[in-house]
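Example 421, ligand FE2/S2 (inorganic) cluster.
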Amino acid sequence: MDVLANSRVMDMAIDIKGDYNDSMDIIERYPREKRYTLAILQDIQRKYDFIPREVMVLMSDYLGMPISDIYSMATFYKALSLKPKGKYIIKLCNGTACHIRGSESIREELETILNISPGETTEDGLFSIEVVNCIGACALAPVMLINEKYYGGLTEEKVKAIIDGIKEGHR
Amino acid sequence: MNVKIDGKYYSGNKGETLLELARRNEIEIPSLCYKEGFEGLGRCRLCLVEVIEGNSTKTVSSCVYPIRDGIEVLTNTKNIVNMRKDIIFLLLLRTPNNGYIRKLAEEYGVKAPSRYLDMEREEDCILCGLCVKACEKLGTNAISLVNRGITKKVSTPYDDASKDCIGCGACAEVCPTNAISLVEQDGKRIIWNKTFDLISCTRCGKCYSTEEVLHHIDEQLGVKTQEYLCESCSRRLVGEKFKEAFQNLI
Ligand code: SF4
Ligand code: FES
């Protein structure tokens, strides 16, 4: 189904930024039943790294469910995000060990360098910060995870060097 | 079904909840998220009572507890009153400036130490969910409970004017704490960030509803309303018709 041809998307008068035609393939993998909402949302999150508004409208049509219900679910689970996440997702640990070893100042440093708060994404779409609880690497405290890579024994200088390094690779 | 409440016996119907039975017999159990005609939501927990069945005693929310034959219910034990006080205490911290909650706190002699109270807080919603239920009952489903934890609130998706909202105001009407803003001015109604034109009664000219509401009713009933009448005019009209029919009879 063509997203743009879908009248409900049109009359929602939202600017359709992305092309979410493929999302219908994901949605249609499931029967038209309310109980599959979360499963579909998870698949959508996996594909786009967030839940686009347009997709919620498509889901609402397909499942015969009010958008408000889908929105309610999408905002409830931490694993689902309404905003696009960055290419590099920084998960800064704030578990007990990291906290004691100064993860707060690491967070401040990250916020200053990237000019965003936890839960946000930089304008260039490169980084998002998430503060998480114990990632199981206390010996490396304070530690952060960028995508699948661990960075331990962090200091403010180290953080700056790591971020600069990633930025460098994207010039 | 026989149920003993605070020492007296009452006969209940199958499927009835404890709160319904109590209300029917004018036994006072406080509640915030219960509304007659709606099924219990079990959110505010103010309707707590003690239920004794055999040797066991448990604390239940009476609005969602279906009665069973032979149970004994205590609505006002020290334990229950203390729990209610705790709940009211927490609600007071959440909505320190809300008139209704403040009155409730006063009634129960609940005071919050000032070091806990943030009098700057402008919150009025206690997250009971009645408004969401009302919207659902109407088949509009424009609002829902969103987010979670301390950011939980009632709203339309993305806080935008929702195309599902018909501006009926049922949510504001059922809200126990008057937390939903509904503004009427110059023939317009503003609710949930959406502005509606108000329709006036074809007889008396009083503004009384939104076009979307009337349309929604027509749609649900499968009819087309010919004349837009406010409640009192339509009642009068029925009365007149009745009188006419009666006079024709004699
Ligand atoms: S707005 Fe009112 S009815 Fe709705 S959840 Fe809050 S307190 Fe309850
Ligand atoms: S009235 Fe029973 S929980 Fe609110």
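Summary: The first strand of chain A starts at residue 88 and ends at 93.
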